[in-house]
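User: Structure with zinc ion, tokens only please.
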Amino acid sequence: MLKGSCLCRDITFSVSGELRGMASACHCGQCRKQSGHHWASGNVGENGITIDGPVAWFEASAVAKRGFCARCGSFLFWKAHDEDQISFALGALDEEAGIRLQRHIFVADKGAYYEISDDLPKLERS
Ligand SMILES: [Zn+2]
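Assistant:
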């Protein structure tokens, strides 16, 4: 069981399901704007995560919504409308969970102010 929370702890979540796909650092413009840098996330089926607290959802595009805490600003979740899974912020986990980043995505949109200096796979988009 993974446990996470926003900065003020009004929102907590626990992940009991098996993670899907790869832990990713997303460099798209929306993730950079919302997080302040690239955004690291894990992915789990909707049934595999329990979220408690007043998540505010921002519809950044027709494709997906972005969940955050309206009190402290933590960017916690990303959910595509047509998928039965949800991405959660690895930076919001409360304890070492043994998860390691496995890839970079949307590197075509990354900021010019940094370089990606590890050897993980880099996908132009997702
Ligand atoms: Zn909060």
